[in-house]
Amino acid sequence: MTEVNIQVWAVDALGALAHETRLAVFRMLVTAGPDGMIAGTIAESAKVPPSTMSHHLATLERAGLVQSERESRLIHYRADYEGMSRLLTFLMKDCCQGAPDMCADIFASISCNG
Amino acid sequence: MTEVNIQVWAVDALGALAHETRLAVFRMLVTAGPDGMIAGTIAESAKVPPSTMSHHLATLERAGLVQSERESRLIHYRADYEGMSRLLTFLMKDCCQGAPDMCADIFASISCNG
DNA sequence: ACCATAATTCCAGAAATTTCGAAATATTGG
DNA sequence: CCAATATTTCGAAATTTCTGGAATTATGGT
């Protein structure tokens, strides 16, 4: 993926997360782990009509941040860790160049333990 | 900042970056370093009218991603590394819990050297 | 005081996003 | 095949965002 294209994609991904409901859903899915959640349950948890949630989930999926898989009548949605990783890496790349200390700070503040 | 409030802020910050021009400008400012850039130069570089750019810069500043400072007739804009750090940390927190391996992958792929 | 420069704010039209009920599609069970 | 359930797609109104010319504010030089 060329530099210009990844930036176009990043705008989409950021836009997908730039919405109260969608960000909440995405975080929920990340926390839910690899099994993900059923579409209906997601809508119920977020207190929005199924139709509305369907649009939001489609937006997240188009942006490559979630994946869906049908299992009989239910549709499972799970976070796409690779997409998220790509986004975070993209955002950090420039920061690490412009502000060498910043990445270190972030690494320290997270340390992958919470 | 409470959990719910940081998420509200995060939506704003993500929305600020979810625009082709604004993302390009933000990355430019990060790369430019602590001295930042003059408003007019930014508009010129991005090939948008000063008025339009002023709106975009205000959006980024409201979101806490850039800072401005007047120096005589010129206004310097610089990336707000603390804001960016807060956003990246926020996004990573959930990921590190839901996908313990993911943060490690990101750390490896960056390693703060480019 | 006046003029020139730099940038913002005002304004309003254009474009995109958000919302959700109703209708359509997909799947299973009887 | 028919009914029930899960979800998406359609459609259209409401809201928000984006854009940029014109007017305004701020600063410095002569």
Automatic annotation (TrEMBL), chains A, B:
<dbReference type="InterPro" id="IPR036388">
    <property type="entry name" value="WH-like_DNA-bd_sf"/>
</dbReference>
<feature type="domain" description="HTH arsR-type">
    <location>
        <begin position="2"/>
        <end position="99"/>
    </location>
</feature>
<dbReference type="GO" id="GO:0003700">
    <property type="term" value="F:DNA-binding transcription factor activity"/>
</dbReference>
<dbReference type="Pfam" id="PF12840">
    <property type="entry name" value="HTH_20"/>
</dbReference>
<dbReference type="InterPro" id="IPR051011">
    <property type="entry name" value="Metal_resp_trans_reg"/>
</dbReference>
<dbReference type="GO" id="GO:0003677">
    <property type="term" value="F:DNA binding"/>
</dbReference>
<dbReference type="InterPro" id="IPR036390">
    <property type="entry name" value="WH_DNA-bd_sf"/>
</dbReference>
<dbReference type="InterPro" id="IPR011991">
    <property type="entry name" value="ArsR-like_HTH"/>
</dbReference>
<protein>
    <submittedName>
        <fullName>Transcriptional regulator, ArsR family</fullName>
    </submittedName>
</protein>
<keyword id="KW-0804">Transcription</keyword>
<keyword id="KW-0805">Transcription regulation</keyword>
<keyword id="KW-0238">DNA-binding</keyword>
<dbReference type="InterPro" id="IPR001845">
    <property type="entry name" value="HTH_ArsR_DNA-bd_dom"/>
</dbReference>
